[in-house]
Amino acid sequence: MPRFLLVLLLCVPAWCASEAQLRRLLASGAGVIELPPGQIEISAEIALPQGARGVEIRGAPEGTTLRASAGFRGRAVLVCRGGARVRLAGFAIDGNRAALEVRSGLPPHDTPFARFTPHNGILAENVDGLSVEGVRFRNMAGFAVLVHGGAGARIRGVTVSDSGSRNAAGRNNTTGGILIEGGTAGFEVLDSVFERVRGNAVWTHSLYTAPRGSDGLIRGNRFAEIARDAIQVGHATRVRVEENTGERIGWPVAEVDVEGGGTPVAIDTAGNVDASVYARNRFEEINGKCIDLDGFHNGAVRENVCVNRGRAEDYPFGHFGIVMNNTNPDMQSERIVIARN
User: Fold this and answer.
1) How far apart are CA 269 and CA 258, in angstroms?
2) Element (H, E) at 337
3) DSSP string for residues in 205-251
4) Which of 3, 56, 80, 134 is placed for a possible disulfide with 87 were both Cys, Cβ 3.0 to 4.6 Å?
5) Which H helix or E strand runs over 97?
């Protein structure tokens, strides 16, 4: 007589967490919240209670991944608005870019990215004391982290890979990395890794009518294969860019924004940027510019190294090592120290 083995598969709740369970877990918006282990499919943005204060959301020791579903709708997988002392740590976000990429250009001149770009990883609006540590982002259609306003944002030890969308021409549309906009003060991006990002990997930006970002530190990050800028400091004051390293800036060539004039740059500047220092950064294989100082004044550029080892024809967007400009009407290229580069 044949024998059959009957196996009963039991679902332990912590292993089989649903989106609904996750929403209930985060609804309190206070204290320490440990996410369930495993992968949780997310269909719409999950927002902490507005004005949440003193909350920590951390991944399970076994690993937690929040994955946007193919039908995801929302500004970001996780959204924080207002409040203070919000810490997000030790989990992963998979943005499902293959399903959610939107072929779009840049927002209108009077619209911030926070009101324009959907499908981000984390969106924080006017949060004081935001901390994002050890979070892993992959396949993001929008930005991995988008910080709009607030003070004291600290991003450390994150990884961003295979992220960013394209415009109608198939070029990068600036998305994929970390964007700090809207006059954010006292921000840091430290010791993080960016690989295969289509747009700007680390970017400060504000509308011309908005306050400038201020008192920032971008240090110790590593970049590889970025199709636009590894770092862009835009419309900001008192920003230090130090001891970052990178390679293959301006690749893949097909994703460089030729039509929009988006020449790749290792360290770029835009708008009105003063009282800032770019120091001890090293980049290799740059298919574009090493350092662009368009808008930079009353600051210093010291001890930076850029090295290309190929032939000139290996760099179709090859450019000058250091470029100065004064596109912004509020500044002049003056009182700049350029030394030992």
Assistant:
1) 18
2) strand 336-339
3) E--TTSPPEEEEEEES-EEEEESSEEEEEESEEEEEEES-EEEEET-
4) 56
5) helix 97-100
Of the candidates 13, 54, 63, 10, which has an alpha carbon nearest to the alpha carbon of residue 34?
Answer: 63
DSSP notation for 266-322? EEEEESSEES-EEES-EEEEESSEEEEEETEESEEEES-EEE--S-GGG-TT---SE
Summarize pLDDT for 289-300 with one digit per residue, the tens: 999 999 999 999
Give the torsion through C-alpha atoms of 111, 115, 121, 127, to 10 deg. Answer: 90
84-135 tens-digit pLDDT? 999 999 999 999 999 999 999 999 999 999 999 999 999 999 999 999 999 9
Length of the chain counted residue by residue: 341
Label residue 34 exposed, middle or buried (CB < 10 Å: 0-12, 13-18, 19+): middle
Q: Is the pLDDT of residue 16 over 60?
A: no
β-strand pairing of 336-339 with 299-302: parallel
